[in-house]
Amino acid sequence: MKKILLASTVFVLLLSSCKWFRQTPEIGLLLEKRFKNKLYKDFDTAAYNKVFTEHFYSVSKELPNLKILKAFYQAQNQHPVWIQKFYFNGELDSLNSYISRSKVHGYNPKIFNSEKLDSLLKTLGANQFKDISEVYPIIADLELTATESAIKYYNFVNFGSLNPRKLFTRYYIPVKRPDSTSMMGVLNTMNLTSLLTEIQPTTETYTVLQKALTNYELLPSKDPHAIMTVLVNMERQRWKLPELGDEYVEVNIPDFSLTWFNKKDTLSHMNVCVGGKRENDYAVKLQQFLKTKNLDDKPKNHETPILYSKFNAIQVNPIWNIPISIARSEIYYMARRDPYYLSNNNIKVYYRGREILDPDTIQWDKYSREKLPFQFKQGSGDRNALGKFKFIFDNNSNIYLHDTNNKTAFKYSNRAISHGCVRVERPLEFAENLIKDKEEYDILRMEVNLPPVDTINMQRYKRKLAKKADTVNTFELKPKWFGVKKQIPIMINYLTAWAQNGVLQIRPDVYQLDETLYDAMRKFM
Q: Do 359 and 343 form a contact (C-beta atoms < 8 A)?
């Protein structure tokens, strides 16, 4: 009995090892059909999986998306799924073609392993293998190279090569970045060519920038600065910013302008003043200040942050809560120089929350500005630095849009002059667009001594003027709040190049952010 069982076992083992009874996997059948070569019928899944596993381990330290790829291929039992899906229908050739042309996006094809991918495709296509074991390492290498190259190309073209929030200290726009879900979506795609086509940027600005890049590159004497300007703004166009909807407001810092868009039409366009540029050698001076703690050593940085939010209110006849930094660097010195500066400019002084009724009597020599114990507020009125309107939106930088009592500044060519907030040229027009209610707009106009548009409110307007002119009962001008019916998105952006009616517009790099971005992008060019 034992001899019979032993003989049966040996017979079964012989049968299982015999090629006559081995089923060729799908990849082997596809290769055989493609190259009309019976060699591929010997494709052994177990032997290939061992080669793939060893190859994966050997290159794992070089794979930026190691965890994603590891999870994907474990779920696929290490099978060459991308070769099966995309090699035989020519889509890996499409991937190779897109990568080889990545210079149109300002990228060096080498960063996507273009040479290796092209070489592996040619090696497999040459069909010069003498033994099936020679095929396994080529398939394994091509599989991993193709997936890694596709993920990186997808991420760079679709999302941009850099995360601006990690690069710039004052960038507060939430940008969508590649994550495990998006990358797994690339790996599981059933149509690679469509995926690559869909991610190509097609906006007017991007198209015009691409054309400009080509033209600059073809010039006999290339202009490095012009090329840099185009490349960094192409990168900005690739960043996935929040969806703004049909109606939104955009402030472009280098253009010193504000544009109100409504379904791609321009509802309003006006000049703005933005924050002043930080001092030269800011980083070096800041290190010095951190050592000395002397405010005289503290470098100035009033640059307007790049941010996204939504308007939620308007304050008419606003009060300016003067920031401690401005109080120390400006108000303190002005008050010491002129004892009547505070009262003449309607600035109230507070100590521990209580108003000092006669601030002109404060002996400023007794206080150091480093430990200034006072708070300052400028009351409503014509002298208020915020003017008559303050447009409010949530943000962590205490930034808002506002009117100003210095109208001549809007004629300057360089309008980077504020402490960080954005001054708007035509605040009344802006308020009308934001309120979107005729009755509310008339009330707002009357608060700033302007007659209502609707004559039915004229009597109300005259009574308000009479109350303000009453010499018996002193009238105190106070702020008044207005809500907004629709929270309009606001984007404070930084673009030094863009398309306008098909024409390339270029502006000075007022904060030198182009240089910072370009230096970070160099390794991808």
A: yes
Report phi then psi at 472, rounded to 5. Answer: -85, -50
Question: From residue 33, how far is each of 38, 39, 525 by CA, in Å?
Answer: 9, 11, 40
pLDDT digits (tens, 9 = 90+) for 420-447: 999 999 999 999 999 999 999 999 999 9
Fill in the amino acid letter for 342: L
CA–CA distance, 360 with 372 (Å, rounded to integer):
16
Q: Indicate the residue type of 365.
A: D
Tell me how far apart the alpha carbons of residues 306 and 493 are, in angstroms, rounded to a whole number. Answer: 5
Six-digit token pair at 157?
Answer: 């073209």
Predicted local confidence at residue 292, as pLDDT: 87
Q: What pLDDT shows up at residue 435? A: 94
Distances (CA, A) of 381 to 169, 356, 412: 35, 20, 25
Query: Nearest to residue 289, comparing CAs of 301, 275, 276?
Result: 301
* CB contact set of 282 (below 8 Å; sequence gap of 6+): 299, 301
Q: Strands 265-275 and 257-262: what pairing?
A: antiparallel
Strand order in the sheet with 374-378: 320-322, 374-378, 347-351, 354-356
How much is the average pLDDT of 476-486? 91
> What are the pLDDT digits (tens) for 344-386?
999 999 999 999 988 888 999 899 888 899 999 999 988 899 9
